[in-house]
């Protein structure tokens, strides 16, 4: 299929083999309504507004960005849990935004999601064993009935939960324990793609390390592909081959972990990296932080031109008029080997070392 | 013991001298379950003063939230039970107070920001209504006044276009925005003490920085105490004055923030610090403490950490280590430092 994406970007050059998911010009607009009895649409929240990227087999693509920028909505669109307003999601050449019924079910077996909210995504009336084993009811071919308890116990062990907890209910677990239940459930069907929305944010760093190591191990073993959404940029760096940065419904920069972390060219990425708290109290005062001015604009009414311009310290008049495209900036196009040469949606891209590894 | 004026807002100085704003003293909490008694909190003590920030760290499932819920008086009893311990707010034991007196403290004096923003907000009421209610019930404001204050608060926690979104329902906000609404709710009545249970877990780093700055500003302005429960050691390093580390329902280490990062005195803390992924590093495998967290139905005898501890000796398997005072090289106690490890000295110097 052709590159129909509005932002026109293909993935960076380090593509290992064929893409397993191709996302083109994806949009989701939620209607804004007024009135209780007669609902009248007065606008739309443009939660996702033209996003294009590829996911390759066996890779981990990290997605980071401001809260509310549309990460979870993208994740749900990829599973067809939300109906896309526009755009396509190709899985092995098939547009899953157009699928329904049995065909969709078959695809979903191979694409599993671990949800952001460990509190509301687990049914309070089901035991943990039933929750983790539920996918086997829908896809009984994966595990014969007599085998299920054993599989569930294995999964509990794999995510670092005591298999003796199999008969407990979700409310008897702490936040972090519930998140691990969600991960175990996501792994049950041994899918090809796992979309993990904040899978480790409620875990202590040691359990987090166990889960991250676990995910990496499973990936090596089964050639899994991950989309890993998280706010913790250190964790994202650790697990990702590539990282995409979103702002207000759009992808603003994408590249390998080295390109994004050590050679970011988009001002928003630079601000994001500078805000990462460093686990060292002696560094409290010494660090340079790019503090963003102003508030996050409403996704119902995004700024014209570059959406970041209301908070960008480099913004010029032209930024209000021209919408920057996600592509390798012109000034770096002549140096394809340079780490700065990766797609960035800014009219004035410029490398800046934030993390300080270049010293 | 003086009775505190429960109508005044944000007074910082009514604490009888010598008592902290909040003291948790040898608290025990257990849950009755089908499989037996779950001992979630096993003798926790900590304190926080006005204007001070205590960070509570620790294993997921170690009792951080349950302790906080006991302080707030929001545990379901049964199945929960508090067999012993005291929780003193300005010297008064909350556990023996009348229900009415306690209600006055909760919400207005001690407010909590919960870990689970979605389930703490009522899904069928607009966020504006839920915020306004606080002002109507506690401050007797008119509907209009209260609504204006609600918009104000949403602005303060940086909800874009607050005026237009005040009539939206919780599910229409992103995870991070809901968390900010929870923060707005806790701040509404300008309490003396805020217990924030992972307030920034769902937030991106720039908003997180803003929210923590906001909390810190308000804390200074109103001289509030803050108990911050979090897994983010970066945030802790940024804002905490002192730290308590929990494992299996106990405090295993206490220390001022600088000391803890530089020189942990408990093997669990040490393992935790080693597990932090770093922004400037891409390693092969992250360090992780080996083994599984303990089953609280059946906590290991002796030191609960012993099956996973690289330093464990025979004594650790049958003797429960008390919280030892940690001393410097010349034997003088270091203020605020304690470690519940038989071999804290070796850990500190190893
Ligand atoms: N059902 C809905 N109706 C209306 N607006 C919605 C709905 N779901 C999400 N939104 C809006 O869409 C935008 C994107 O939300 P989304 O949950 O995708 O953000 P996110 O990037 O995952 O944020 P976070 O990091 O806080 O989880 C937000 O402005 C949110 O308020
Ligand atoms: N209603 C309940 N019945 C039985 N056990 C419970 C109940 N509520 C909590 N627990 C147990 O009590 C322990 C402490 O839970 P708590 O929520 O305080 O952990 P936490 O330290 O806050 O963990 P996290 O960092 O994951 O939020 C957990 O092991 C949990 O399984
Ligand atoms: S296009 Fe202009 S406003 Fe947008 S990020 Fe670049 S410099 Fe800033
Ligand atoms: S008391 Fe023993 S088992 Fe416990 S932390 Fe110290 S050395 Fe390890
Ligand atoms: Mg989200
Ligand atoms: Mg908790």
How is the CATH topology of chain A named? Rossmann fold
Shape of chain A: globular
Overall structural class of chain B, as computed from helix and strand content, comes to alpha/beta
- Number of discrete helical segments of chain A: 10
Radius of gyration of chain A: 21 Å
Small molecules bound: adenosine-5'-triphosphate, iron/sulfur cluster, magnesium ion
- Report the largest inter-chain contact: A-B, 74 and 72 residues
For the record, the CATH architecture of chain A stands as 3-Layer(aba) Sandwich
Largest sheet of chain A: 6 strands, mixed
Uncertain stretches of 5 or more adjacent residues of chain B? 1-15
Strand content of chain A: 15-25%
CATH superfamily of chain A: P-loop containing nucleotide triphosphate hydrolases
Number of domains of chain B: 2
Q: Oligomeric form of this entry?
A: heterodimer
Tally of individual domains of chain A: 1
- Series of H and E elements of chain A: EEEHEEHEHHHEHEHEEHHH
Distance between the termini of chain B: 46 Å
Strands of the largest sheet of chain A, in order across it? 6-7-8-3-9-10
Keywords (chain B): ATP-binding, Cell membrane, Membrane, Nucleotide-binding, Transport
Region (Disordered) (chain B): 1-21
Family (chain B): Belongs to the ABC transporter superfamily.
Protein name (chain B): Methionine ABC transporter ATP-binding protein
Layout: helices, strands, pairs:
The complex is a heterodimer of chains A (359) and B (350).
Chain A: E1 19-34, E2 40-56, E3 60-65, H1 71-78, E4 86-91, E5 94-95, H2 101-110, E6 111-114, H3 128-138, H4 148-158, H5 175-187, E7 193-197, H6 205-222, E8 225-229, H7 233-239, E9 242-247, E10 250-256, H8 257-262, H9 267-274, H10 330-333
Parallel strand pairs in A: 3-8, 3-9, 6-7, 7-8
Antiparallel strand pairs in A: 1-2, 1-4, 4-5, 9-10
Helix pairs in contact in A: 3-4, 3-5, 4-5
Chain B: E1 22-33, E2 36-48, E3 53-58, H1 64-72, E4 80-89, E5 92-93, H2 99-105, E6 110-113, H3 117-120, H4 127-139, H5 143-156, H6 162-165, H7 175-187, E7 193-197, H8 205-222, E8 225-229, H9 233-239, E9 242-247, E10 250-256, H10 257-262, H11 267-274, E11 324-327, E12 333-339, H12 344-349
Parallel strand pairs in B: 3-8, 3-9, 6-7, 7-8
Antiparallel strand pairs in B: 1-2, 1-4, 4-5, 9-10, 10-12, 11-12
Helix pairs in contact in B: 4-5, 5-7
